[in-house]
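User: Some background: our group keeps a shared notebook of sequences we're curious about, and every so often someone picks one and asks for a predicted structure to add to the entry. Today it's my turn. The entry only has the sequence so far, pasted here. Could you supply the structure so I can complete it?
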Amino acid sequence: MSNGVHTKVNLRLRGVLLNNYDCALCGDQEESISHLFFSCKVANKVWNLCNRWVGVLSVQHNQAQENFQQFHLLSLTAKGI
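Assistant: Of course. Here's the predicted structure to add to the notebook entry:
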């Protein structure tokens, strides 16, 4: 949530020059935090497999804060709070 992941877009903002800034997983868009964690089709497959593995049905949001709030509320519900 603090934008500290070294995605290609963040590296560019820090002055690192790369041949391209496309997502290394899908190549469809620039590799930003938002894309990598929330809209990349390859990453979404991984998230769906993880959700199925732990038995969680959830909605994928487009922002880190929304996802954090959702899973925080799920943990409180699971604890009976």
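Suggested note for the entry: Residues 8-78 form one domain. The chain has one domain: 8-78.
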